[in-house]
Amino acid sequence: MTGSICVFAEQWRGSISEATYEALALGREVADALGVQLTAILTGSNARELAQTLGAADLVVYVDHPLLAETLPQPTAEALAQVLQDRRPRAFIVPLTNVSLGVGTLLALRLGTAGINFCKDVRIAGGRLQAVCVMYGGKIEATVEAAGEPVVLGLWPGARPAEKGRSSRSPVVEEATVSLRDSPVLLRRYVEAEAGDVDLTKQDVLVAVGRGIQSKDNLGLAEDLAKSLGGAVAGSRPVIDQGWLPLSRQVGKSGLSVKPKLYVALGISGAPEHVEGMKDSALIVAVNSDPRAPIFNVAHYGIVADVLETIPVLTAAIEAKRAVARHA
Amino acid sequence: MGACSVTLETLPRFPEGKELLTCLQCGVCSGTCPYGDVMEYPPRRMIAMMRAGLQEKVYTSDSLLACVACYACQVKCPRGIRLTEALLPLMKEQALTHLPELPGELQKALQSTLRYGNPMGEPSRKRAAWVKTAGVPIRILAEDPRPADVLWFVECYTSFYPRGQDNSRATARLFHRLGIDFAILGNEEKCAGECGRLTWEPGLFETLMDYNMAIFQKYRFDRVVTSCPHAHNAFKNRYPALGFNWGLEHTTPFLAQHLDRLKPLLTRKLNYTVTYHDSCCLGRQNEFYEPPRRLLKAIPGLKTVEMVHNRGNSICCGGGGGGMWLDTYFKAKGYERLSERRVKEAVATGADVLAVSCPYEVSRFEDALKVVGYDKRIVVRDVTELLAEAMEE
Amino acid sequence: MRILVLMKMAPDVVEELEIAPGGTALDLDYVRMILSESDDHALEQALLLKERHGATVTALALDAPEVDDALFTALAKGADRAVKIAGLDAGFPTSQAARAMSQAIAQVPGLSPADLILTGVQAIDDLDGLIAPMVAHALDLPYLGIVTRLSLDASGRTALATKEYPGGVRGEFEVKLPAVLGIQAAEKPPRYVPVAKVRAAMKTQKIDSAPASLPADGGCAAAQVVEMKRNEPAGHAEMLDGDPESVSDKLCGILTGHGLL
Ligand SMILES: Cc1cc2nc3c(=O)[nH]c(=O)nc-3n(C[C@H](O)[C@H](O)[C@H](O)COP(=O)(O)OP(=O)(O)OC[C@H]3O[C@@H](n4cnc5c(N)ncnc54)[C@H](O)[C@@H]3O)c2cc1C
Ligand code: SF4
Ligand code: SF4
C-alpha cells in the first residue's frame, strides 16, 4: 500500500458504485505508468464479499466496523486515516459523489496532507502527479500539483469508462481493524424516490423535445431514449402548451433552469427563452432537420436529421452498448 | 425616495392615493381591461375595496399580478385617474411585500436586472458585443467621450436577444446613412428600469435610475434616443425628478422626423402587405400613432392594412407590467396569452408582415405564431428592420 | 437556538472570467464576485428555521468584493446579525477561508456557542476541499453534507437532516447538535427581498467587522495551480454526419467517453 495509488471503494446499499470502477480505471493507468501497485480500501459492515468485485486493484484492504455500514463522512475518514497512517500511498482517490462527499476533505485534514477537489484526470509530469481539475462550473480547467504526498484527489464521475475498471480477477484481500468513537450522525432510514412526477432539476440526463417531434404520439420515442439513458423527458414550451407534457417538464425562461450532465434537444429550434434554461448543461446534443437552427450554436454535438428517424436508431444503439457493458 | 415611502397606511394621503376618491365607480376600466374578466378584483372593484379599507385583501389577491400595464383603463377613465401610471404600480408595490412567494420567473428577472442590468441574466460585459456585427461604425462613449448629438440608449432586448440585435443593426445602419452624430454607452448601459417600477419593484427602479443618471452625467450629448418604448416611458415620466433634462425620442418617431432625408434612401421595393401593431407605451401612452405608419408608407411597394383593433384600441402583447416574466404563472391560472389573441388578428388581415416598434413584441409575437401554428403565414419585423431592408447599400 | 450561516463569495461565472498574467489564477481585478449559490440556500434554510423555531441567525462572511451587498441582503431578509472577517489576502484558498471562519467562531464575541452552523455544500472554487467538513474538523463538531431538508426536535438538541442520494433516494439522519451542515438546497428557493429593504438595511443596520487571525505558516500543505486555462465555448456544435446508424455509433462513442453509458 505504501507508495501505491489507492482508490476509495465506495459501497452504497449493498453494491459498489459505478464511480468507483471509473476511479479504478484511472487509478490503474496511473499506477501502471508509475510502476506501482493499485490498491483499494473498502469500508463496510459485513461487506467483505464486495471486495471480490474490485479485481482491477492488486490489493484490497477491507475495513469492517458497525459504524461503517453507511459512508458517514467522519467515521469513514477516521477509519481510512488509521489504515493509511503508516503505509502512505502516493495518491488516494475518492469519487466525488453524494455518497462520499466530504470524506476526501476530512481525510486530507486528518493526514495533514493536501486535498485536490474537482479532478477529471491525473497526469504524471517529471515523476510528479498532476491533477487536471474542472473549476468554476466548467468554465476553467486547472492543472494542479500538491506540495506533498499523499495527495487526496476528489474525482468527478466520468473520468474513465466504468467497464475499464471492472475485472474478473480476484484481488488479494487483507483485513484491517480500526477503533472508532461513537458517531453523532446516524442514519435513521432511507426514503425511496417518490412515485409521481420527476424533478427535472435533479436528473443527470434529460431528453428534451420540441415542436419538431410533431405529435403527442411520437413522445414515446423520446421516452424510450430517455429510459435507455437513465433520464427523463423534458420539453420546450410549445410542447407543454399543447398539453403533451405537464408544466413541470418545461425548460426555459419561464420554466425550469436545468444543468444535467447530458441534455439531448430533439426538434428544438433554440429560441433564447429555451436556451436560457439549459445552456449550462455539461454536454448538449441537438438533433434538428434545419442546419441553421440556433440550437447548434449552444450544442456541443449536432446532428442534422429527422428526429423521427434518428431517435429509434439511437435508442437501439445505446441499448446494444449497455447490453455489452452488462455482460462484460 | 419618492414612491418608496408610500405605505399601506399612508397611501390615501398621497396624490395618487387621493385619486381613489374621485373614482365614479363607472366600471369602464374593468370593461376595457384585457384581463378584467379573469381578475378576482378588476380595477373598479379594487378601488372600491381600497376605499372601504379592504387594502389587505387587494394586496394579497393575485389580481394585481394580472395587470400588464397596458394603459387601456387609464385612457378610458372619465375622471382621468392615472391608473396605469401611478395608482396601480403603487398598489402592486404593496402586493410585492404581501405575497407569500414571488413567481420564480419574475424573481429571477428582477435579480438579474439588479445584478447584470438586464432581465435575461446575460453578462453585463457583453452588452455591446453585438456592435461588432453592425457593419457600420458605432461610437462607444467610454472609449471616445467626445460630445455627441444623440445618445442612443439601446436597451436590453435590443442588446442581447438575437432578433432584437437585428433591430439594433438596422437602427445603426439608418443612423449612419442619415449622418446622425450618435454614440452609445456600451457596457456601461443598464436597463432603464421601467419594468422594474411597473413590476412592483420601486427599489430596483430607483437603483437603476441612480446608476444610469450618474453615467449620463459623465458625458455630453443633446438628446437621448432609445429603441425601447419602456425606457422612453421611464425617461419621460420618472427620470426628470432626478434631473433628466435632455431631449428624448423613441427611434421610430425620431426616424419619422428625418423622413425627408430618409425617403430618397429607400430605393428597394418591398412588395409586402404590412399590418402595424401599436405598442401600449408608444401608442396609448404617447399617441405616436402616425409616425410609424408614415415610415412604412414611405417604403416603395409596401402596402399597409389595419387590424380590427388599432391605434388607441390596440390589443396589448401581454408583456408589460411584468407579464414578460409571468408566462407560466398566467398559464397555470388559465389566462389567455394576449400575444396569441393579437397575432390571430394580424393573420386575419391577410398581411405577410406584422410590423412592431417595441423590442418585446418580436419575441412575444414570433412565439405566439408558433403556438397558434401560423408561423408560416406571417413574419414579425421591427419598423427599423423594414426601413433598413428598403435601403440599398 | 443560535444559528450561524457561513457565507463565501465566489467568482460570478455569468460574467466572463479572465486569467491573470502568469497563467495560474483568475484575474481578481476583473472577475465579479457573487454569494456562492448553495450558501444562499444555507441562509434561506436558517431563516426558515428561525421562522419555525424562533432562532437568531448570524451571517458570517469573509471580506471580498461585493460581500457587503450580500450581508446587507441577508440582514434585509431577516438575519439578526452580520459579521465580516477582514484582512485575508485576495484569492485565498478554501482551507484558509475555513481556518479564518473557525477562528472567528471561537474568538468573535457572540458567535459561539452556536447550536447549528450551516453553509453551502460546495462552492465552484473549492479546489482544496469543502468549508463545512473543514470547519467541523477544526471545531470538533459533527458534520453532514448535501442536506436538503432540516427540522429540529423539541429539545433543540437533535436535528433531523435529509441528505440526497442518487436516483431520488433520500437518507434521513439524526444529527446531535451543535453540528456543521452543508446545505445543498433549502426547502424553498431563496426568498426575494425588495431592493428598497436592502437599501434600508444599509442605512439602519451595520456589519460587524473582525480581523482574521491565522497561524503564520498558513496551515497545512496546499495544492498549487501550475496552469489555468479557459474552457472556451466552441460557438458552434461539432456536427456528426452520416446515416442514422453511423451517427448513432459516433454519438454512443462520445457518450461513453463522457461516462454517460
Ligand atoms: C415570455 C416568453 C417566455 C417563454 N418561455 C419559454 C420557456 O420557458 N421555454 C421554452 O422552451 N420556450 C419559451 N418561450 C417560447 C420560445 O420563444 C419559443 O417559441 C419556443 O422555445 C420554441 O419551441 P420549439 O423549439 O419547440 O419550436 P420551434 O421554434 O418551432 O422549433 C422546432 C424545431 O424543430 C425542427 N424540426 C421540425 N421538424 C423536425 C424533424 N422532423 N426532425 C428534426 N427537427 C425538426 C425545426 O427545424 C425547428 O428548429 C417563451 C416565449 C416568451 C415570449
Ligand atoms: S393597465 Fe391594462 S391590464 Fe392593467 S388594469 Fe389597466 S387595463 Fe387592466
Ligand atoms: S374608469 Fe375611472 S372612474 Fe370609472 S371605475 Fe375605473 S377608475 Fe373609476
Explain how this protein is built:
The complex is a heterotrimer of chains A (328), B (393) and C (261). Chain A is of the alpha/beta class and 328 residues long. Chain A has two domains: 5-176, Rossmann fold; 200-327, Rossmann fold (3-Layer(aba) Sandwich). Chain A contains seven helices and 17 strands. In chain A, the strands form three sheets. Chain A has a nine-stranded mixed β-sheet with strand order 9-8-7-10-6-1-4-5-11. In chain A, strands 14-13-15-16-17 form a five-stranded parallel β-sheet. A two-stranded antiparallel sheet of chain A has the order 2-3. The two termini of chain A are 28 Å apart. With 393 residues, chain B is α/β, with parallel strands linked by helices. Chain B has three domains: 11-98, no CATH class; 104-257, Rossmann fold (3-Layer(aba) Sandwich); 261-391, Rossmann fold (3-Layer(aba) Sandwich). In chain B, the strands form two sheets. Chain B has a four-stranded parallel β-sheet with strand order 2-1-3-4. A four-stranded parallel β-sheet of chain B has the order 6-5-7-8, sandwiched between helices. Chain C has a nine-stranded mixed β-sheet with strand order 9-8-7-10-6-1-4-5-11, with helices on both faces. A two-stranded antiparallel ribbon of chain C has the order 2-3. The longest helix of chain C has 17 residues, at 37-53. By secondary structure, chain C is of the alpha/beta class. Chain C has a single domain (2-211), classed as HUPs (Rossmann fold, 3-Layer(aba) Sandwich), CATH 3.40.50.620. Chain C has helices at residues 37-53, 67-77, 94-107, 131-139, 195-204, 244-257, and strands spanning 2-7, 9-11, 33-35, 56-62, 81-86, 116-120, 143-152, 158-164, 170-176, 179-183, 208-211, 223-230, 238-239. Chain C is globular, with a radius of gyration of 21 Å. At the B-C interface, helix 7 and helix 11 of B face helix 5 of C. Strand 9 of chain A pairs antiparallel with strand 12 (223-230) of chain C, so a sheet runs across the interface. The structure holds flavin-adenine dinucleotide and iron/sulfur cluster (SF4) (2 copies).
